[in-house]
Amino acid sequence: MYNSKIIGLGKYVPDNVVTNDDLSKIMDTNDEWITERTGIKERRWVKEGSGDTTATMGVKAAKMAIERAGISKDDIDFIVFATLSPDMYFPGPGVQVQHALGIKTVGALDVRNQCSGFIYALSVADNFIKTGMYKNILVIGSELHSHGLDKTTRGRGVSVIFGDGAGAAILTREEGNKKGILSTHLHSQGEHAEELVLKAPGMGTRWVNDILADNNEDDESYFPYMNGQFVFKNAVVRFSEVIMEGLMANGLQKEAIDMLIPHQANLRIAQFIQNKFGLTNDQVFNNIQKYGNTTAASIPLALTEAWEAGKIKEGDTVVLAAFGSGFTWGSCIINW
């Protein structure tokens, strides 16, 4: 029997730091308003002309993960890339990574599950390895939100939350089933798809031709929309459920959690879950204060920083959990 084990982690964030005070100069907001509602103090936004894209940021994170894993790019058997912000409508960024890294013609899969994207991508990679199909898989979560945000007072409820960045992990085959990823748990509830959505351009709604023909600067369909309170209420319920589902599937109690890394959607959500599970500050890792919500990149970014800080050690029970657009949500239980 096989499990998959994370043997390398990497990250990349743009150099450009955008503080809450910076945002107050371009929209009607302030540091107190943003901090109180989200816990965010600053985020990274790609500067025009920097050369950073969703794919290139993913490549930079991947290079770090490969080096730390102690393997060669030629050892990688498969690529899974999670993002909601690909460089192109198609093809997805997985193939761009394959080319940029000079990896042989292995398969490259793109995952479109937004905030839950990295958990879904981990689950795909984990099960490919468990079946024996592949040995070493590169998993990336990368996002470039800033170029598609409504950076006016009209869009402040969404635009102050999101940041850019990338994280990556190398998964490899682990003999036996006691170490590494023990299980993953995935869910969706499409009836709430339009509560957190970017409608255009979309083949079934408003395509590029429609937008150009209307030339309507008040059209909000190509900016993200979020029903914030509704999303929050659902998130705290689903986070709790899917974490408990993962623990119970492995015969564990909540007291077994050594490190919880939640998707960095909102610090208030993370704090609610922390309190509900009775976890200390040392048992939960958050970095949303520095980076904002980087959707599919948020968990690998936080996981990498927690590991770098020595907060995760061998034998720890590490729990990853996410909730987001779709609605989709999931968890991953790891014996590190």
UniProtKB/TrEMBL annotation:
Subcellular location, record wording: Cytoplasm
Pathway note: Lipid metabolism; fatty acid biosynthesis
Main subcellular location of this protein, as a coarse class: cytoplasm
Keyword Transmembrane helix among UniProt keywords: no
Stored InterPro entries: ACP_syn_III_C, ACP_syn_III_N, FabH, Thiolase-like
The reaction(s) this protein catalyses: malonyl-[ACP] + acetyl-CoA + H(+) = 3-oxobutanoyl-[ACP] + CO2 + CoA
A Gene Ontology biological process term: secondary metabolite biosynthetic process
Active-site residue numbers: 115, 263, 293
Signal peptide: none
Ranges where the Beta-ketoacyl-[acyl-carrier-protein] synthase III N-terminal domain occurs: 109-190
GO annotation, cellular component aspect: cytoplasm
GO molecular function terms listed in the Swiss-Prot or TrEMBL record: 3-oxoacyl-[acyl-carrier-protein] synthase activity; beta-ketoacyl-acyl-carrier-protein synthase III activity
Keywords for the protein's UniProt record, in alphabetical order: Acyltransferase, Cytoplasm, Fatty acid biosynthesis, Fatty acid metabolism, Lipid biosynthesis, Lipid metabolism, Multifunctional enzyme, Transferase
Record domain Beta-ketoacyl-[acyl-carrier-protein] synthase III C-terminal: where: 247-336
Top-level taxon: Bacteria
Family: Belongs to the thiolase-like superfamily. FabH family.
Complexes and interactors: Homodimer.
Function: Catalyzes the condensation reaction of fatty acid synthesis by the addition to an acyl acceptor of two carbons from malonyl-ACP. Catalyzes the first condensation reaction which initiates fatty acid synthesis and may therefore play a role in governing the total rate of fatty acid production. Possesses both acetoacetyl-ACP synthase and acetyl transacylase activities. Its substrate specificity determines the biosynthesis of branched-chain and/or straight-chain of fatty acids.
Xref: PANTHER family: 3-OXOACYL-[ACYL-CARRIER-PROTEIN] SYNTHASE 3, BETA-KETOACYL-[ACYL-CARRIER-PROTEIN] SYNTHASE III
UniProt-recorded name of the protein: Beta-ketoacyl-[acyl-carrier-protein] synthase III
Organism (species): Neotamlana laminarinivorans
Gene: fabH
